[in-house]
Amino acid sequence: MKAARPGVTQAMLRRAFARLAFAKPITYVQPEGNITLVNLPTYYQVRWPATGYQPGEVATITLLGRTVQIRPQASTYTYDFGDGHHQGPTANPGGTYPRGTIRHTYLDHGHADVHVQAAYTGQYRLPGDTWQDIDLTVPITGPPVDVQIKQAHAVLLDHSTG
Q1: What is the pLDDT of residues 79-89, one digit of tens each?
Q2: Which residues partner with 117 through β-bridges?
Q3: pTM of the model
């Protein structure tokens, strides 16, 4: 009589999920060039690098000799604007001008280290099974982006003299 193979447990799945090489969320800033102005809305969007497992990408691992697929998802994002202000957690990955809804207006000039933290959740499936949730959330913080905040000054010119 053949002995039954031990089953893959949620504890094993949580450990494997926590060890995945997740993609770190990159903060895209608009206006372009990571330069903005005091009192001008600045737009933010999460983008994903090619390295690491991005949301929706499937990782195939082996647990107890069984093939397991794991599919991470980014459930929420928390934006740190680098000036003491935050937004989130929110399910919104942001966007670009004019429709982006993650935006922040700086009140002082200087520099801000902006970053976003993604909360990864995930699902798994064994061959022939349906996707099932993994009972774990893993926070992954992206690298900081240096945003320069400049002060604009209006200047009136007299072009009436020749």
Answers
A1: 999 999 999 99
A2: 78, 141
A3: 0.86
